[in-house]
């Protein structure tokens, strides 16, 4: 009996190390050995990526995973999340996922991958969205975060927080502690956090699960996330927007980026949208168009509120 239990445990461990778990929104789990995807009919595609050393061209072999999901009836979800063995995560809302192609790759150029090294790639998206050593796909019934009630000027907010040298466990940096920022945003002990970079990369994380001990490094190329609880590949660079619960902070150097945020976060701001800007002294109400025409916030601008005007 003990020997039988040991075999079951070892089998489960091997599957977790070399298998893909698909978790449906109702909690049901489907498990597949990675090698299973290598037995399916393979297709070949080519990609081009811009690198510092020039254009890199690769040929790949694999399966269209988005088509495989549809063929197997796995379409009832609003957000899909991919996770690797080292907890690297990439998420897509269904509308975005349905307009791109997703592949599980079993080989690259002349190399045939070991099954535990299969990769998920999106040929028309940047490598931030590609995942090595895929271990889990989570299908979620996720609803977009509510439009924040207040959006604070990031420049002003950070000016009121201590800039710390070498915050443990990091060395050689100056940074703001993430907990200090969450306190300024009135976040609770647990909070869903949204981070958006200047180039439009969106990442949803949880505090404290993913962000305890995290910092925002003040660098020459913007504000960059570092967290000891998630892989370095998920450390978002050049952050312009952070939302925790009902409040957010926005880097107001380029107010036109609010147009992009409106789409990324499903704010549904109409053509009659208004903004109420709260300054050090007094407040001002403007149309959304006039507000973004200001181009940037000043240190006199404390926070603003959005009114959809639909």
Walkthrough of the structure:
With 310 residues, the chain is of the alpha+beta class. The chain has two domains: 2-140, Oxidoreductase, molybdopterin-binding domain (Sulfite Oxidase, Chain A, domain 2), CATH 3.90.420.10; 150-307, no CATH class. Helix content is 19%, strand content 39%. The protein is built from eight helices and 23 strands. It has helices at 2-18, 34-38, 65-71, 94-97, 154-159, 178-184, 257-264, 288-293; strands at 19-23, 29-33, 43-51, 54-64, 79-84, 89-93, 103-108, 111-112, 119-121, 131-132, 134-140, 150-153, 164-165, 174-177, 191-197, 202-207, 215-219, 222-226, 239-244, 247-250, 274-279, 283-287, 301-307. An eight-stranded mixed beta sheet has the order 16-15-19-20-12-23-21-22. Strands 3, 4, 7, 8, 9 and 10 form a six-stranded antiparallel beta sheet that branches. A five-stranded mixed beta sheet has the order 2-1-11-5-6. β21 and β22 form a beta hairpin. The termini are far apart. The model is unreliable at 1-17 (pLDDT under 50).
């Amino acid at each position: 009996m003990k020997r039988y239990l040991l075999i079951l445990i070892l089998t489960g461990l091997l599957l977790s190390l070399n298998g893909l778990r698909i978790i449906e929104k109702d909690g049901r789990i489907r498990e597949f050995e990675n090698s299973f995807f290598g037995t399916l009919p393979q297709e070949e595609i080519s990609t081009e990526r811009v690198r510092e050393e020039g254009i890199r061209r690769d040929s790949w072999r694999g399966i269209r995973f988005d088509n495989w999901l549809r063929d197997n009836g796995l379409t009832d979800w609003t957000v899909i999340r991919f996770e690797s063995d080292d907890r690297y995560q990439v998420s897509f809302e269904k509308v975005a996922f349905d307009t791109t192609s997703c592949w599980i790759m079993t080989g690259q150029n002349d190399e045939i991958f070991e099954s535990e090294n299969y990769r998920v790639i999106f040929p028309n998206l940047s490598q931030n969205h590609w995942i090595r050593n895929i271990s889990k796909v989570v299908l979620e019934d996720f609803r977009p975060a509510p439009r924040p009630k207040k959006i604070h000027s990031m420049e002003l907010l950070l000016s009121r927080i201590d800039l710390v040298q070498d915050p443990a466990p990091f060395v050689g940096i100056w940074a703001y502690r993430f907990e200090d920022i969450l306190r300024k945003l009135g976040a609770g002990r647990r909070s869903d956090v949204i981070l958006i970079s200047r180039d439009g990369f969106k990442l949803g994380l949880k505090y404290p699960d993913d962000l305890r001990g995290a910092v925002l490094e003040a660098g020459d190329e913007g504000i960059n996330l570092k967290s000891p609880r998630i892989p370095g590949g998920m450390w978002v660079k050049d952050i312009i927007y952070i939302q925790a619960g009902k409040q957010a902070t926005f880097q107001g150097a380029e107010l036109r980026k609010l147009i992009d945020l409106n789409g990324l976060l499903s704010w549904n701001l109409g053509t009659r949208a208004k903004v109420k800007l709260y300054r050090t002294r007094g407040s001002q109400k403007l149309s959304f168009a006039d507000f973004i025409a200001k181009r940037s916030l000043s240190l006199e601008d404390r926070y603003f509120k959005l009114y959809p005007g639909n």
